Amino acid sequence: DKGGWSSFMAKEVSEEPEAVANTLRGRIRGGEVVIPELDGLDELFQGISRIIVIACGTAAYAGQVGKYAIEQWTRIPVDVELAHEFRYRDPVIGPDTLVVSISQSGETMDTLMAVKYAREHGARTLSICNTQGATIPRESDAIVYTHAGPEVAVASTKAFVAQITALYLMGLHIARVRGAIDHESAAAHIAELEAVPGKIALILEREQPRIEQFAGWMADTRSVLFLGRHVGFPIALEGALKLKELAYIHAEGFAAGELKHGPIALIEPGQPVFVVVPSPSQSPEMHKKVVSSIEEIRARGARVISIAEEGDAAVLPKSDEVLRIPMAGPLFEPLLAVVPLHIFAMGLATAKGLDVDQPRNLAKSVTVE
Ligand code: M6R
């Protein structure tokens, strides 16, 4: 039931705040993460020396965001691999490897086969999944469910923010079990997470109509580029994927630092480029770098659409359009910055008269290899 919304996707984007809130619910107590599903696994978490995240598509981008936080908090090296690449290269895994799979459906065949492979080769497995009782969690040693609620539209939106939330909870839990961070820091990160639903709600309330209108003006666009740095990089990739799958527009995401190693050659007058801008107060150094990337592409005629913190005065005169997000700590910005990109892709596809719930050639869950 679309509940009065024009599409399941519109409904599901509107549910992004609840997806985060429900994934946090019941899992925080006194400034600590408490995940009943992970009870009794302390020894497993103490014994690992690497983490490999496996997933496909949007779930893999959630994994890429998670990597930054999990490494920072646990000091365990984290690799993120596309599930379909994982088992074809004889990966180095063993009992000290935790393989974390991420899947909304829990039925993606590539991810399932990778989890089975990891198990057979002695790795420990943990599944982050949105669908109770699905096949992938049943094949794993441990499960952390995302509570985004059923996601019907082919494009994954609310599951993405829920996946990042679950990864962060898992990362904080492992970090505390191993004594890698203290109570105060964990509590501060948890407070940041708890503030996310309200901040996403603000974006939906203040920016959605404007972004939809702006997307409508761009209905004839043939190609869009997305730039980001650090945690903004996987968000750029996610923005590009959504535009491809929903609006059938050529789109590419790049790490901003990679520009001068090739992609800047693509910039010609009028080329729209979305730039995920880090907070000037929270990440001053990275902010400076991203602003200088904006200057470089603008000097070559790019049309810059910045996703930036409200109050970021530096980007305003350098951008053709600014989509505003509330302030958040560096690791929590992706949970906000992705929302305007979801709205934009949906708005552009709608303006082109396309079915946003069921894009051509795609299935909601890919149960073949
Ligand atoms: O069900 P899963 O999370 O395993 O699905 C993974 C991908 O197929 C999925 O995220 C896909 O990339 C989406 N259509 C992207 O919006």
TrEMBL record:
Source species, domain of life: Bacteria
Active site, per annotation: K364 (for fru-6p isomerization activity)
Catalysed conversion reaction: D-fructose 6-phosphate + L-glutamine = D-glucosamine 6-phosphate + L-glutamate
Main location: cytoplasm
Domain SIS: 41-180, 214-359
One example GO MF annotation: glutamine-fructose-6-phosphate transaminase (isomerizing) activity
Keywords: Aminotransferase, Cytoplasm, Glutamine amidotransferase, Repeat, Transferase
Intracellular or extracellular location(s): Cytoplasm
Subunit note: Homodimer.
Function recorded in the entry: Catalyzes the first step in hexosamine metabolism, converting fructose-6P into glucosamine-6P using glutamine as a nitrogen source.
Protein's recorded name: Glutamine--fructose-6-phosphate aminotransferase [isomerizing]
Provenance organism: Microbacterium arthrosphaerae
Lineage, top ranks: Bacteria, Bacillati, Actinomycetota, Actinomycetes, Micrococcales
